[in-house]
Write a structure and sequence with these properties.
Elements (H helix, E strand, L loop, with lengths): L1 H25 L7 H31 L4 H26 L1 H5 L10 H72 L3 H20 L6 E2 H16 L6 E6 L8 E2 L5 H10 L7 E10 L2 E9 L14 H12 L4 E8 L2 E9 L1
Parallel strand pairs: 2-4
Antiparallel strand pairs: 1-3, 4-5, 5-7, 6-7
Helix pairs in contact: 1-2, 2-3, 2-5, 3-5, 5-6, 5-9, 6-7
């Protein structure tokens, strides 16, 4: 911050140095009337600087931004009038030869003098307007930065909430599956608990980052599919296809698991042949994920799962990939199909 202040001070010094040196640069090689330069350029320029910084550091914050606009205008009119009179006083008392050398028609009490006053008022109003423009721009930039920071904090908080919501949901569904195996096949239940431990380790320790490599996410999905297949009968056929390349594409974690959970929840029947097909492909910078399953709607009495998986996913997609994802769902001839495409 101290370094930034030094840079700002240096910028202001350079700007004023350039402004004060302009007459010398423009008249290089010519004779300068020093008295006229001081009276008509350097002194007004000094007054402009005083008006600018008084407004920039004091008046704008105290009056204009505090919505005391009338007081702000009156104070600046008094300030401008004071400097115009002070300039005239300095010219009359210290640069009288300039007045004596004025043309005869330059009468102070005639119309030219009134025009002179109007021009003076406008010229002294310029630093006021410039200070307002710069100060307002700085305030807008600061406000915009604070707004973006607040929005980002809100986004991260909401995403964290959604992630914490997803993990218990995932754990709850997995426990339901294990429970169904305990009486049927205790050995399978033990194996499932061991596999679930590995999956929970991934959930707890490797998904706390904003992005994970797609390869890690694929490995997690493969393990989950194998875990779910333990409780299936030969009436359900599960097919899965994932990219085998060592792509370093990174995505937000746990975006696809809700779709796979949903397929195993609604696409399996104990009495009817069913199918679950999972396919993922990489197309340039886009991840294309499609999952199809037979649809066996759950009864109202079935409390397995909380039903938050898909709404959670849709909310996360809106927050993480606005205008960079496509999410389509379709039910046709008893087959439920979902396609999710994400631009990375």
């Amino acid at each position: 911050m101290y370094k930034n202040k030094k840079i700002v001070i240096a910028q202001h010094l350079i700007i004023w140095l350039v402004l004060f040196s302009m007459p010398f640069v423009l008249s290089y090689g010519q004779d300068l009337d020093t008295n006229r330069l001081i009276a008509h350029f350097l002194i007004p320029m000094l007054f402009y600087a005083v008006i600018f910084y008084l407004n920039f550091f004091v008046l704008i914050d105290r009056f204009l931004f505090s919505k005391k606009t009338l007081i702000f205008i009156i104070v600046n009119l008094v300030l401008i009038g004071f400097f115009i009179l002070l300039k005239e006083f300095i010219e009359d008392n210290y640069f009288s030869e300039l007045i004596n050398n004025r043309p005869p028609n330059a009468n102070r009490e005639g119309p030219p003098f009134k025009l002179f006053i109007y021009v003076q008022m406008l010229s002294y109003a310029a630093p006021v307007l410039l200070s307002i423009a710069i100060k307002s721009t700085k305030k807008w930039v600061k406000t915009e930065a604070e707004r973006k920071e607040a929005d980002n904090f809100k986004l991260q908080t909401e995403l964290q909430h959604l992630r914490y919501q997803l993990q218990p949901h995932f754990f709850f569904n997995s426990l339901n599956n294990i429970y169904s195996l305990v009486d049927i096949s205790p050995d399978k239940a033990k194996s499932t608990i061991h596999s679930l431990g590995k999956l929970m380790r991934y959930l707890l320790y490797e998904t706390n980052t904003e992005l994970v490599t797609l390869s890690k996410e694929i490995e997690f999905m493969r393990k989950y599919i194998e875990l779910m297949k333990l409780r299936l009968t030969d009436k359900t056929e599960v097919e899965s296809s994932f990219p085998v390349s060592d792509s370093q594409i990174k995505i937000s974690p746990l975006l696809f698991i809700s779709l796979i959970e949903n397929a195993f929840k609604h696409g399996v029947s104990a009495s009817t042949k069913s199918m679950i097909s999972i396919d993922m492909a990489i197309k340039g910078n886009k991840v294309d994920f499609t999952i199809e399953n037979h649809n066996f709607p759950k009864q109202d009495s079935d409390k397995s799962g909380s039903g938050i998986g898909l709404p959670n996913l849709e909310k996360r997609l809106q927050l993480l990939y606005p205008n960079k994802h496509s999410f389509k769902k379709e039910l046709r001839d008893g087959v439920y199909k979902v396609n999710l495409q994400i631009e990375t």
